Amino acid sequence: MPRGLFITLEGLDGSGKTTQIKRLAAWLKKRNLDKRNLEPVLTRQPGGTATGDRIRELLLDSRSASLAAMTEMSLMFADRAQAIAEVIQPALDAGRIVLCDRFTDSTEAYQGGGRELGSEIVLEMHRLVCGNLQPDLTLLLLPSLSASLERARRRNERHSAQTGQDESRFEQEQEGFYRRVWEKYRSIAAREPDRVVEIGGNLSIEEVHEQIVEAVAERLLTATARQ
């Protein structure tokens, strides 16, 4: 059976990833690409497994403010290794399309850029811990920095009010942190233009979806031709 397709969505919190990954999943399901009526596999990082959800709670809770940068990065990779073993690789081996909200690009941007650990250590950890598994396509959503942060903070306030869970640790960082994250994302896109499709500007939800669908349709055609 041909290997499935691994698609990741990246961007700052508040960039619209959650909305767009759901819309993309619905679009893919409607196309019924493999004629088996199988829905795409949706997952997220951190999280997506029982172990990952526990790690996510620790990483995003504002009470974890004292985490060292290396601890933070190591926890991200522990979560990712579990997700690959439990969710991502089995789905790809079964020929499924996997849609993942964040992957190693996030670690390179947030810990490599934001925490200033640098790209080299993140990429080496990815090689060692994740077997260097690479997405077939990465959709990088980069609306303006100010718009992303404002939406992220409003979303977390609603989430906390509805569930009682605190996931605001990263949103408490200063603008300089997010500026470094932003710039690192841009450098990743410039370094890997064949994999990363950058969708920038303060576009509407529908406009972003249209650009995503165009990029995914093109990649699906390429994958079909190779098979």
What does this molecule look like?
The structure is a single chain. This protein has about 230 residues and is α/β, with parallel strands linked by helices. The protein has one domain: Rossmann fold. The protein has eight helices and five strands; from the N terminus they run βαβααβααβααβα. It has a five-stranded parallel β-sheet with strand order 2-3-1-4-5, sandwiched between helices. Helix 4 (about 105-115) packs antiparallel against helix 5. It starts with a strand and ends with a helix.
Give a short overview:
This protein has 227 residues and is α/β, with parallel strands linked by helices.
Secondary structure: elements and pairs:
Blueprint: E1 5-11, H1 17-31, E2 41-44, H2 50-60, H3 69-93, E3 97-101, H4 104-114, H5 119-130, E4 137-142, H6 145-163, H7 175-191, E5 196-200, H8 205-226
Parallel strand pairs: 1-3, 1-4, 2-3, 4-5
Helix pairs in contact: 1-8, 2-3, 3-5, 4-5, 4-7
Entry keywords:
single chain; 227 residues; alpha/beta; Rossmann fold; five-stranded parallel beta sheet; 8 helices; globular
